[in-house]
Each structure stands twice: as structure tokens, then as C-alpha cells.
Amino acid sequence: MKKRLLSVVLLLFSCAMIDAQEVQSEYKITLKSPGNPAESYTLTEDVSGYLKASQLLPIEIKQQKEEHGSATRITVTLRATDLVYYNFEEVCKLTTMQHADCQFLMPGFWYHRNMRSPKEAPSFATSDSWQVREDRLSTPLTGIYSDKTGDFYTVVRLDKFENESLATHSAGEIILTDKTSLGFTGFRNVGGTTALVFGFPYSEAPKTYIRKLTLAPAVQAFEKLEKGETRQLVWEIRKGKAADYSAFVADVWNYSYDTYRPQVYADAMSTAEAKRVLSNFFTESYVNKYDLKYFSGVHMRTDDCESTGSVEVGFVGRVLLNAFNALEYGEETNNTDLINKANSVFDSYLKHGFTPNGFFREFVDYSHNNETDIYSIRRQSEGAFAILNYLNYEKKQGRKHPEWEAKIKTLLANFQKLQGQDGSFPRKFDDQFRVTDPSGGSTPSATLPLTMAYTYFKNKEYMESAKRTAVYLEKELISKADYFSSTLDANCEDKEASLYASTAMYYLAMASAPKERDRYIDLSKKAAYFSLSWYYMWDVPFAQGQMLGDVGFKSRGWGNVSVENNHVDVFIFEFATVLDWLAKERNEPRFSQFSSVIKSSMLQLMPVKGHMFNIGKVGYYPEVVQHTNWDYGKNGKGFYNDIFAPGWTVASLWQMLSPDRVETYFNPKKK
């Protein structure tokens, strides 16, 4: 028996080992002399591990490999024998995998082939080979998955990531002004064979993504090494097998978490203090000079945070959810000013906030006398979500609102008219129910209010509609690992689609009978891995003079937004609670541990007197946090875009800071 067990273990071990014939490495060093074009040299490895060119170069390069089961640790040491400006590259050809058979992963930035993204952003529409700087990614890792065999390979960079350098240009060959810790990673089609590509310092090709929907020519950075100076670089290549792309993403996330072990952010603000500071947003942003009263939270300048004439029900405005937050907090703290402001918002929307056919007036711009006439399932759902929270709260206080209940019933009847036979909801439509964007990527946003309405009104039709969304989500998004088009300011692969899908299944589980819960729990977990893959495992470095670095910002726990919008933000809402719930339901401690990282880290840029983080008013939480060489339109890495929407950031953090809200809605006796 022992011999048989030993043979099985040896067989499994041998299957996991990386075969040298399966991974064929090629090496290149590119050297630049100031004022001259760079020159590249092919390197070959000798028996001692030295990588040598066909001619003598002013730099020595030695590689050491260590096998650790399914992983190979690669350590490259470069030593300058004279002053040198260099860029090192390694290409690992995966000889058993054809590029055409593969899907790709660069967490938080690249999924499958990025074919949901516009051609103005990185995707296969431009090229089938991409390499990017590491700070674009939530983990500095590239993975390649074979649809044909289920085999995959990953390469991850291992370092302390302490340094960054300001660059004089954003494209072409650039000599760095200081030390950087940032290299590059990606994938390449090498004559039909797929390959991992990585190196140092960063080099982006065939394009570099510098601004929203703006691809610039390739960039290659060169680090200076003085004579006798050394630089050590470490990567780990790993082989594995997965049943499908979703299982691949889940495996990579678990591996990334175990590799980086992100820690809870020290000195995190307490929940009570965070809500106290955030509540200043409700106090200062209130606008009462129009028919709709609101908390101003969109199209605002970061430097002065002056209220604007724009008001938005959901998405980046979240005016109704913030009204509920202000009401609840006002009554908890006996703040009659907040109570009155919140109630005036609800009263104004009840009277003036609906279209002739019963949809929310989603976005109104009083400054330019303009109002959208194209509506979205995302904003409509988020408005309904807020009102159902409000109605449930009011009922508990003994206050009834039959007019509001009638409005919500009309809105939900509209939902049922819009829902497709496959269970999906169109992304956009007008007041006459004419669909202008049939994409179903925003469908999970509707699941939340439908389950809530079922619980509140005891109407089974709402639950049946919610269950139909689950069928669509499982078939078209979750089973295909295809999460897209949830956000409204981009149409591409994005974090919010998978986050909403996971959250939708959480709400369905809360509202369902025990025999149905397991299915929804498993679907929530599957989608959760995708959402988690957008959140940073590591702290990207910043250069001196980049504000985020100067204030000590740590990126771990923050989430990249989408392929199109390559910045981090605090979009979390109840997802941290979902992770804690899944950790218990499926005995997955990594989920709750990383949830703790998120909840502590996301409060670190809270604007308070003396520590305003370049925000004009206390409690107006920043939105477009630019952590890599990309900006939404202004200011670049280490700063914010000049315009922001604190309406949703405040609402998101408030929901995160109210972890019992969902469970007490569905199970009030547990409070």
C-alpha cells in the first residue's frame, strides 16, 4: 500500500514539473548610449548559467534556476563592468501550446483576448502580442491558458517594489532619471507558438496605453548601472491545469494571494470615525434650489469640491442611496439637519423624479438645462435599490409611504416589460421601452432590487424575475467567464460586471429557500474570483513628487476599474460582506482575509483637516486614483483626474461600513 501511494505521489509530482523541452527560453539585452538608438543583443546561456552575447558587452548577466514542484524560480543578476544603460528581456516559448488555442490573463487589465474592449484600448483588435508595465496589473503576472488541453503557465515577478522613476517621455526609448522597481510582463505569438515574455525595466509594446482611449507608440525604459553596480531580478514560472478559464482565474488568484500575502493596512480608520467624516459630504453637498433636491456628487472639481447643477440617481451620483445613508445616520446621531435634508430629497423625487411612464429621471443637468432621455437598467436598478432600503427602514420605524410603494411597483412592472425571454435586461432604452443597447452585461444590477422587492412586497413575480436573471447570468456571463459592460462610461471587460454578478447571487441566496441556496452560493463564489482578480495584491511604487507616493498611499486592496479605465478606485459596496459570507459558507479563509485588507486599505485617503490628500473638502472621497502611467484626461500617475464624482465613492464606502445591512433586510430577526 505504501509503495502504491508513493508511486501515485511521484506520478503527480512528475506531471506537475515543468519540462525543459516544453519551455524554451530566449534572452535579449538592449543597451542604449545617450543620444543614439539602442542596440539589441541575443544572449545564450553557458553551462555556468551566464548569459552571453556574441561580443563582449559592458555588463555580465547570470541566471540561476531553482525547481519547486510545479514552479521554477528564476534569479537573474546583472553586474555592470562599465557604465551602462540596459533593458533585459526573456521570452519563454511554450512549445506544446499554439497561440491560436490560448486565452490570456493579466489580472485587472487583460481577460481572454480583451475583445470586448474598443480598438482604442489594448486588445487583440490591435495585436495578438502585448507586454505592459507591471503597475498596470493587480498582480504583476501573466497567465496563458490552453483551451485545447487545459494546461496553463504563469510568470510572476517577485520583488520589494520600493522605487519608481519619473520619465521624461511616455513613448520611445527613455533613460530613467532614477531607480525603478517596475519591469514588464506579457505574452507573444512566436511563429504560431505562444510565449510568456518578461523583463526589466518596463517596456510596453506594441503600444502603450497612456490615457482613456489613447494608445501611444511603444515605450522602452533603460536603467542606469554604474561600473560595479548590480541588479538582481526574480521571477517564478508555474505550470498547472484547469477545467476551464474560470477555474484558471480562480487558481491564479489563490496562487497570487499565497505568494504576496497582502497585509491589513495599519492605522485604518474606525467605522464610527469614517462615517463621521463622510457625513460631512451630506452636510456640504446638499442643493435645494431646483425641483429635485440632491446631494451634489458628480462632475465636481477635486480642488474646490463646489456643488454642481448635475444630479444622478445611480451610477456615479447615487443620490437616493446617499439620502438613505444620511437619514439613517441622522437618526442614529440625532442630527435633525441631516434628517431634514434626506427627507427633502426623497419628497422631491416622489413628486418630480419620474418620467411619464414611471422610470426614474436618471440624470438631470440644471446648469445646462439638459436631461437624458436614454435610460439604463443600471441606474434604474440602483434607484430602486435605494428606495427599497428606505421603505424597509421606514416600515421598521412605523412610518408608511404608500405613494412610494406605488411608484416602485410601477417601476418594477417596467422592468418586467424590459426583461428578455433569456432573463437578461437591455443596457439602455428610452421611456417608450425602445431598446438602444441590447447588451445584457448590466443585468445583475436588476437582480438586487427584484429580490428585495420580493421580500418587501411578498410578490412571487419579482422572485421569478430575479431567478430568470440568474439563469441568464449563469449561462452567458459566469459559465463563459465573460464579464463586461456593467459600467456606463466604458463598454469593455470590467470589474463591476463580475462584482455585480457575485453580489446578485448573494442576494438570491438570501431570498431563497435552503434547497436553492447552494447553487447561488457556488455561482457567487465563481464570479467572486473574477472580481477579486481586479483588486491589488501589492503596493505599486511611486516616484518622489507623485502625490500618492509622497502621502504613503498603498495600493493593496484597491481595485482596477476596467480595461478602458486603467485606474484604481473604491468600488466595493457590499462585496466585502459577500466575501466574508462566502468565506463562511465555503470555508475559504483567503476571502475573509483579503476582505479585511480591502476594508482597511480603502479608507486611507479619507480627506480630513491636515490630511486632505489634494481634495477640497472634508469627507469628499477621491474617485479616479491614477496609480500607473495612465490618466482619465489630466495629471498622470500619482494624482487624480481633475474632475471626480464623490457621490458614488461615499455611497460605496458607507455600504462597506454597514456589513449587516443586507442580512437584516432579508432576516430582520437576526439584528
From TrEMBL:
Keyword Signal: yes
Superkingdom, natural source: Bacteria
Transmembrane spans: none
InterPro entries associated with the record: 6-hairpin_glycosidase_sf (IPR008928)
Signal peptide (from-to): 1-20
ATP-binding recorded as keyword: no
SUPFAM superfamilies: Six-hairpin glycosidases
Gene Ontology biological process: carbohydrate metabolic process
Keywords: Signal
Protein name, as recorded: Cellulase Ig-like domain-containing protein
Species assigned in the record: uncultured Dysgonomonas sp
